[in-house]
């Protein structure tokens, strides 16, 4: 809706104009999401008895890897388009990318970091998970402002219509067309998942429980959300029956459910309540 938060003239010390400086709403909200996620990760680490500084450093590297992974998967999913239109590669820096690519990149870096610094892997992941989903919730507001990750055409009363041609040029948002506000759907669902993860963290039975709840919860959100997404940057499988994200979501829900059962069986029984 508002892809450009602020535009100011820019000059050097001699007074020559360098052209306008634009602060994009997506970039601003992405920075807010980054800081909010770090704050929550440090808070959860302290509550779990972990080294908050080390976990915060880890979160920075995981978030950077997540951003790069998301854009790399977007490039892979739409390789046919980008190979024919190499000038459009610049749009990779104007969109969020494919989330599951970010998840894979973040997990790989998190695994290496935990092994290198001898952090308890599952407990550390539990501390990071609420911050990650909070960052997603805020980040999707940035997507809504920029117009990326837009929804399908809709006739519902809450449909939104993008009118800024800048969004159309930058990320291909349809203008003057009522659309499902899919970005807001996901943002709202992620905020709910954030509070659910905090509740689970407060009384978890085994390490990894918060991580698995996040994995299954977000995958379910994303699977359903795909039915309302209208942007083409998601890939398709099985003749278009499923998007790439939906197929990955199914795999992750099954994997999370299997891991949940195994870890819960290995967890020690809860301590008896005092008389």
Task: Please characterize this protein's 3D structure.
The chain is mainly α. Helix 2 packs antiparallel against helix 4, helix 7 runs antiparallel to helix 8 and helix 8 runs antiparallel to helix 9. The model has no long low-confidence stretch (mean pLDDT 83). The termini are far apart. The chain has a two-stranded antiparallel sheet with strand order 1-2. A two-stranded antiparallel sheet has the order 3-4. Strands 5-6 form a two-stranded antiparallel ribbon. It has 9 helices and 6 strands. The chain has one domain.
Topology of this protein?
Layout: E1 4-11, E2 17-24, H1 25-47, H2 52-77, H3 79-84, H4 99-116, H5 121-146, E3 160-161, H6 165-171, E4 178-179, H7 182-202, H8 209-225, E5 236-237, E6 242-243, H9 244-266
Antiparallel strand pairs: 1-2, 3-4, 5-6
